[in-house]
Amino acid sequence: MTADLELVSRLQTLDTEIGEVQREVAALPKHIAQIEKALDGHNRRLEADRAALTANQKERKRLEDDVKVQEQKISKLRDQMLGAKTNEQYRAFQNEIEYSQKEIRKYEDRILDLMGESEPLEINVKKAEAALKEEKKQVEAEKNAAREATAKDEKRLAELQEQRKSAVAGLKPQVYRDYERIRKKWHGSALAEVVDGRCSACQIMLRPQFVQDLRRGDDLMFCESCGRFLFYNPPVSFEQDLAPAPQAQ
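Given the sequence above, the corresponding structure tokens read:
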């Protein structure tokens, strides 16, 4: 492998990691926005339950006040009945008392309904308040973790960018221009290995003479089909791996 090709390989490795770190940095704010959106939704539901409970309590209070008003009215009517001069006056007072009693029963029935409705509302509010409290703690913990991860990623990104500058500085300008052109064309994949006479990226069979020239490793070579930089790794001999290391003299 030529020195230029080694630098191209190094550059692609760096660009791959840089891309991964950048995606992670970009993903963290989105993740925080999602959990904050969910928290906001839960908070709105809690406020809706609180508002419903408050409305329930206000209506009950109003009806209880209406009951008191009717009871006071009945008390006055009964006092007035004692001074009735005629049967017609007596019956008129009695009819008004009966009407007020019906109103009281109607109010009391509605109060019972509201009491039945308020019980699950109160339970929901208490549960939601407890759950929201825990969720806020969790969200804050995740936000802190995200801040730490972002700071770590940004530090790593700065290190990688410096390493990339060094790799680029070592490349011939034309080789770097070729690298950037190929990388953009193939979404980051600028380098491919030749395996069994094929480009491992596009799977096109290469000419035998082309492969022979590539094996010599004298020059940078490009796939005649996809245009990627090509490299060749000679196979490792299994017998050579098993051979004992030479003894020091």
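Strands lie at 191-195, 198-199, 229-231. Try to locate this feature in the token string yourself.
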